[in-house]
């Protein structure tokens, strides 16, 4: 039986999980791949920290560069994270003819195209199942199981931290800041939560999924990104009463005018499957022309789930190695020479229904004034709720509206005009309503 020799970079949360998994299920991998998977070298900056692991028998180093160039390594597993020095290390490993497995979505979303090019030239694998939705095998599903389909829509809940925060806000009627603080205390959110709560992490994952789904080069910059900081418990409460839940969605759609690529909070019908995905869980809904909708659900992060995806990629490489096959599946599903950029639809041209919440003075004539703004922008209103009477004209009352389908350009123009009205006392809140294909 041949041996696949592994070099691991980064012994943090996922790295320690990979060491544990390789130890726990070693026999299984031999039975499933007919290869022995042997972790040979490990690089981490801190070799003194207790990781709860017996690291005797491994060649430990602080010098990751030495691992990516070592002649006795076949596969480099990059679990350092971030761009620097991960990008250079991955590139060096590939240039040295080593396969690379990574969970680094930021690296793949931003520099994946260049790295894929190097991997292709060197005939190496660059595997990144763990970069999107952790243990949920969505890249493999898109690239292999759904390879016969024209994909037209993807909807994903791809960030467990945001989904946890929105779930807690809904269930406990608490404000964003308070839930974020307790999520940080419980280790569900980073000390600097911006990558998660500002939607960037979700957008990284969407960049990867959409390139695979639509046969386009990876292009993170074309995604429109909005996070969840502005979602209030008040809007979550209104959503609940109107039969919706608010989720941070990653959305990719192919239409006649091009691709919609967007990450933003959206109201989804509360009886839909996507609405039922709560807490730290991830889910992806993919619609293909023959398959219809398929759904993938599970744990998108954490030591064990992420290690599961990383080691799954290593097993794939081992299986290919046994048959002397390299690059059986194109890295982005479409052969590199057929990848084509597609036009991206501007957010202004987005067509959908919108939830709007205004704080208005409770006086006669106000509703007529507001209706006139919508009329001027050709927006038709589906539902309208006004609650409570204020005894003082200076204390505003909420006015909540849902529009019929319209374009975002019209909604934004109407919101600008509404803000200018004396009767509208706060910047209006708006949330897109999304129908997830099921
Ligand atoms: N954690 C998850 O649940 C999860 C889920 C999906 C994907 N991912 C991705 O997986 C990757 C790893 O995440 P993680 O959570 O395991 O991160 P982590 O816990 O911060 O681990 C990173 C490790 O790399 C070490 N390191 C930093 N720079 C290094 C260098 N130049 N050479 C060698 N080692 C270095 C760090 O050491 P120090 O601590 O001493 O700096 C740390 O031990 C990231 O790309 C992340 O986005 C993570």
Keywords:
binds NADP nicotinamide-adenine-dinucleotide phosphate; 438 residues; 35% helix; alpha/beta; Alpha-Beta Plaits; Rossmann fold; eleven-stranded mixed beta sheet
Describe this structure in words.
There is one protein chain. The chain is elongated, with a radius of gyration of 24 Å. It has helices at 13-24, 26-33, 64-68, 86-95, 105-122, 138-145, 160-172, 176-185, 194-197, 200-214, 233-241, 303-322, 366-376, 408-419, and strands at 2-9, 35-43, 59-61, 75-78, 99-102, 126-127, 151-157, 224-225, 244-255, 258-269, 281-288, 292-299, 351-360, 381-386, 397-403, 406-407, 429-433. The longest helix has 20 residues, at 303-322. Helix 5 runs parallel beside helix 10. The protein has three domains: 2-135 and 303-331, 3-Layer(aba) Sandwich (Rossmann fold); 138-298, Dihydrodipicolinate Reductase, domain 2, CATH 3.30.360.10; 347-433, ACT domain (Alpha-Beta Plaits, 2-Layer Sandwich), CATH 3.30.70. The strands form two sheets. Strands 7, 8, 9, 10, 11, 12, 13, 14, 15, 16 and 17 form an eleven-stranded mixed sheet that branches. Strand 11 (281-288) and strand 12 form a beta hairpin. It is 35% helix and 25% strand. It has 14 helices and 17 strands. It is of the alpha/beta class and 438 residues long. The mean pLDDT is 96. Bound molecules: NADP nicotinamide-adenine-dinucleotide phosphate. NADP nicotinamide-adenine-dinucleotide phosphate binds at residues 9-15, 43-46, 64, 79-81, 85, 103-105, 130, 134, 301-302, 306. NADP nicotinamide-adenine-dinucleotide phosphate (NAP) is lined by residues 9-15, 43-46, 64, 79-81, 85, 103-105, 130, 134, 301-302, 306.
